[in-house]
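Entry 0007
Protein: Pentatricopeptide repeat-containing protein
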Amino acid sequence: MSVRSVYQFSSLLRKCTTLSEISHARITHAQTLVNGFIINVTLQTDLLLAYSKCGLIQDARKVFDRMSDRNMHSWNIMIASYAQDSLYSDAISVFDEFRKLGFRPDHFTLPPLLKASAGVREVYVGKVLHGWVIRLGLEDYVVVGTSVLEFYLKCGDLVDARRVFNSMLWQDTVACNLMISGYAKAGLCAMAMSCFSNMIGKGVKMDSRTIPSILNACGGEGALMRGKEVHGNIVRSPFFSTDVVIGNSLINMDGVSTMRSKMKELGLTKTPGCSWITIAGVIHKFYQGDCSHPLAQVIAEMLGQMITVLMLPDAFGRGNHI
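Output (structure tokens):
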């Protein structure tokens, strides 16, 4: 087996990155078999990557299962391929096998696994992965830190998400967008606005995903005026005149304002949003803007304390395990 021949086949396989080029990958695969080169770990890995990039996950798995020597790269490819195709349980299953063989995850292994854990709501698995991130000192990799943050947000755990966000050395546009969107989806408009204000104050640039998220957060009655305050920032941004989503978000915000004014003129009222929780068999209801609960003052004070602590950048040490 000549080095030159292996290099030539490897180069051909690495050019196969889309489904339209799959025929070239299959031809090259056949040629490696005919020439007896398929036992070469480099070619096996390149073939695995080619099938994965072309979206042929079953073919990729066949190559993976037949590999005589699976290196770190091949394990990462297989895990990422399953996660990319939303086959989350399969990704976690491969990782279990990976761990049993004594491999340790790296900064390429963990992001797709965190995505898979969130996809199947495996909170325990995700927290174990977060533990790996901390033990291996990988939290400062931007893609890893962002993946941990996104995991907690997708699982609806805003408290741990905020802890991760506060501990990030690089709170870039992606991280800020995730945090703003998480607060907006939870209806925590004030927190979303505070995060947006901090983002602008630190000089982090907005992008086309920032603005719809913050405008959605401003859809609530109490935050409407704040939404108008950020309107100027949006109009001055380079995305205002070219992004349809941003334009629609602004129209929707203006529509909400007009609708509320019309309802007020007609003497109509909107049923306020309500959430409830059962404690010891007793149902406790909470309405938007309602302070009639007998422990309303205590709840408000406790919530304020929690928010204050979470807003402190050094409230949670970087070495604390979740």
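Curator remark: DSSP finds 16 helices and two strands in the chain. The first helix runs from residue 3 to 14.
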